[in-house]
Amino acid sequence: MSRIRKAVFPVAGLGTRFLPATKAIPKEMLPVVDRPVIQHVFDEARSAGIEHFIFVTGRNKGVIEDHFDIAFELDRTLKDRNRASDLAELARDLPMAGTTSFTRQQEPLGLGHAVWCARDLVGDEPFAVLLPDMLHQSPTPCLKSMMDAQAEYGGNFIGVYAVPEDETHRYGIVDVGTGPKSALPIRQMVEKPPQGTAPSNLAISGRYILSPKIFDLLGSQTRGAGGEIQLTDAMVALQQSEPFFAHVFDGRVHDTGTKLGFLTANIAYALDHAELGGELRAALRQLL
Ligand code: UTP
Q1: Would you say residue 1 has pLDDT above 70?
Q2: Is the pLDDT of residue 3 over 70?
Q3: Given the CA of residue 110, which atom of ligand 1 is nearest to it?
Q4: Which string of b and e fits 230-263 if b means at least 16 CB within 10 Å?
Q5: What is the pLDDT of residues 96-134, one digit of tens each?
Q6: Could you tell me the end-to-end alpha-carbon distance of the chain, in angstroms, rounded to an integer?
Q7: Structural domain span for residue 65
Q8: Residue 49 belongs to a domain
């Protein structure tokens, strides 16, 4: 497999678990501390070395495209007010011109369908997929260590993390053979196994490196669970012909698509924040 240059961000979902906050605002634009969730995930991909960023958006998601563009009037006002550090921060967050693409998933037919919508933009090369509502908090970006492992072993990679044994029924779970934690051979993937039947406690975390062969499989796939085109079904089919590895992520995973996960992410990131951490700690002590 060749070097991973492109990443797909599926951002067309409706975010129904976070209503009413997500009625008019995409859940990817909700802030974790002072940056939208999507910016955190974009930063992870950029610092991993990704060169092209493909967003699969939908209706009411135009603000994501605006976020990754220059806000001319805002820049002008900040310049007039000598707000150099704010200007520098906005410039740092911006993708380089010509490195983003936006395409629309016309109907929310599932994650697999959203990834399939990026097929022409990805072309015939292996690529990364990052689910923007899943924040991976760690000193080394999760995608970076996955890309390093993929360069060493080749094949398809799925990011996984350890979840409590009694919660495995809520997640996609992988059954793995023996190997290094960075590349455990996957024997089987099971979507939300009934309680007590999970083959491991390693849950799929929302980071993938996939071969472009996945697109043909997604294109010919019938709808699976929930009437949606499931990415997992296509990965199971691809596993017949290509190796899949699980990459165990050691940091914290926050599902910001749920209210509790979003709140926890905000507290965890704010506690790590150089300016906010100390005062937040004191405020939390008072509250509790
Ligand atoms: P989720 O199931 O977590 O997102 O999909 P959702 O559908 O927005 O959330 P709920 O369940 O209604 O609260 C994981 C990721 O896949 C994207 C979502 O935007 C999210 O980032 N997705 C999901 C799509 O792009 N298209 C879809 O049809 C479904």
Answers
A1: no
A2: yes
A3: 28
A4: bbbbbbbbbeeeeebbbbbbebebbbbbeeebbe
A5: 999 999 999 999 899 999 999 999 999 999 999 999 999
A6: 52
A7: 6-160+204-254
A8: yes
How far is CA 10 from each of CA 42, 78, 135, 217, 263, rounded to the nearest angstrom? 12, 32, 14, 18, 22
60 pocket-lining for ligand 1 (C-beta < 6 Å)? no
Could you report the per-residue pLDDT of 214-237, keeping only the tens digit for each? 999 999 887 777 778 889 999 999
- Verify whether ligand 1 is closer than 6 Å to residue 109 (CB atom): yes
How many angstroms separate the CA atoms of 115 and 105, rounded? 9
Pocket flag, ligand 1, residue 131 (CB < 6 Å)? yes
pLDDT mean over 255-273: 95
Residue 243 has pLDDT above 80, yes or no: yes
36: Cβ below 6 Å to ligand 1? Answer: no
* Average pLDDT for the chain: 94
Closest CA to ligand 1's atom 25: 12
Residue 137: φ, ψ to 5°: -100, 115
- Total of domains in the chain: 1
192 in a structural domain: no
Question: Residue 32 half-sphere exposure, CB side, CA atoms within 13 Å?
Answer: 32
pTM over 0.85: yes
Q: pLDDT at residue 161 above 80?
A: yes
SS3 state of residue 8: strand
CATH code at position 85 = 3.90.550.10
Tokens of 5: 């240059």
Chain-centroid distance of CA 277 in Å reads: 25
Decide if 240 is inside a domain. yes
